[in-house]
Q: What sequence folds into this?
């Protein structure tokens, strides 16, 4: 018998080739066959699929022609049309000098009495600071340009100007009743 001893120079290279060969052999043995996968794919392809539902029928809508060009545009700002009407209605006088009782809100003022001087009634109004003021018709009260129209023994009647929300002003009747304390 003859024994062959590999030389030292070829030893590590031969060992590396042997290890690689053994690894390839082992890995090829672990890989299952692809036949069952191909059979499963063929089976799925053979199945009949459910029919698709038909697309819904599109409804035909009747066309509408807008023939109201002379009417007001429903999408325009309604205050644009009232600009000319704003100047015609009542409005506060910006040049009028404000009176002292216009600095207080109307609900902060109270009527405490009247004076009858020669048949003309004067109202006595108490402000929130406790000061009593004498007023007559055409004086102003409150913060809404309230002009006194009449002084009676039991109340002071006035007309206030309040904004209407569209750039104009509205007149509102108000009164300040005699405080019965």
A:
């Amino acid at each position: 018998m003859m024994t062959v001893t590999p030389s030292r120079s070829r030893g590590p290279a031969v060992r590396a080739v042997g290890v690689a060969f053994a690894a390839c052999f082992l890995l090829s043995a672990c890989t299952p066959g692809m036949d069952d996968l191909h059979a499963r794919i063929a089976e799925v392809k053979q199945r009949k699929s459910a029919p698709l539902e038909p697309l819904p029928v599109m409804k035909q809508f009747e066309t509408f022609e807008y023939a109201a060009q002379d009417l007001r545009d429903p999408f325009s700002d309604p205050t644009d049309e009232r600009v000319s009407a704003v100047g015609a209605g009542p409005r506060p006088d910006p040049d009028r000098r404000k009176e002292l009782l216009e600095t207080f809100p109307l609900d902060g003022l109270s009527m405490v009495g009247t004076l009858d001087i020669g048949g003309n009634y004067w109202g006595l109004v108490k402000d929130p600071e406790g000061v009593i003021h004498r007023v007559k018709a055409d004086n102003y009260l409150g913060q809404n340009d309230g002009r006194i129209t009449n002084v009676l023994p039991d109340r002071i009647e006035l007309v206030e100007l309040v904004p209407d929300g569209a750039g104009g002003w509205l007149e509102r009747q108000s009164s300040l009743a005699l405080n019965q304390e």
Q: What stands out?
A: The mean pLDDT is 82. The longest strand covers residues 155-163. Strands lie at 110-117, 120-126, 132-135, 140-141, 146-151, 155-163, 169-177. Residues 98-177 form a domain with the SH3 type barrels. fold (CATH 2.30.30.830).
